[in-house]
Amino acid sequence: xxxxxxxxxxxxxxxxxxxxxxxxxxxxxxxxxxxxxxxxxxxxxxxxxxxxxxxxxxxxxxxxxxxxxxxxxxxxxxxxxxxxxxxxxxxxxxxxxxxxxxxxxxxxxxxxxxxxxxxxxxxxxxxxxxxxxxxxxxxxxxxxxxxxxxxxxxxxxxxxxxxxxxxxxxxxxxxxxxxxxxxxxxxxxxxxxxxxxxxxxxxxxxxxxxxxxxxxxxxxxxxxxxxxxxxxxxxxxxxxxxxxxxxxxxxxxxxxxxxxxxxxxxxxxxxxxxxxx
Length: 277
Description:
By secondary structure, this protein is mostly helical. Helices cover about 75% and strands about 5% of the residues. A two-stranded antiparallel ribbon has the order 1-2. It starts with 12 loop residues before the first helix and ends with a helix.
């Protein structure tokens, strides 16, 4: 997060929208016959989960470093090409997944074919919105992409790995904003990163923040139920409110630590209370 602005409840609107969309996506996954596959490289367990968390942090760090290097070198065209390629692939794959899940839940014949057509159309529209139209349409697509990607990750990563990945990323976010590539990229201007950030009411936020918020809520919804999911949303919004206040004072503040910590705490506390009380 980076910007100076007057803190108002309306600033939570895009975050709420992205989280609600992530729950919708998670619901589609839960009611569809699609088989779930783990996207983590190591098996679940204490050593493996720590390894998975380290793996995700390294991936995020490498991606941010490459972007900063390209911005510093003035390689605008190459940077836009790589971002466009990544966004296009992500939108296409996620569109196919959720279109297939939706059609399969209604036992539609040849749902793979229709899902393919739908995903191509959605991808074209998303690319036009992000890279041609810009403005609120682009921001809306980024919000939906963050929710969809987060729900997919929440469904595809076991619980211990999910918790450790989110915690590791929250710690890394502090370093990345104040000492690492994210803060340096923000100084150059997040608005240059079409598809990787969005603007709302003078506030710039990254796609990564929305993705990992949605990963938490999606995982809570799928593996722990409605009430823990709702509690995690409340925690995320409370953490974002605090982060916005700090953002106003400092002009730059990491968007993950407080929302993730509060979201995890309230989500698991609610789950514990339901199970044991």
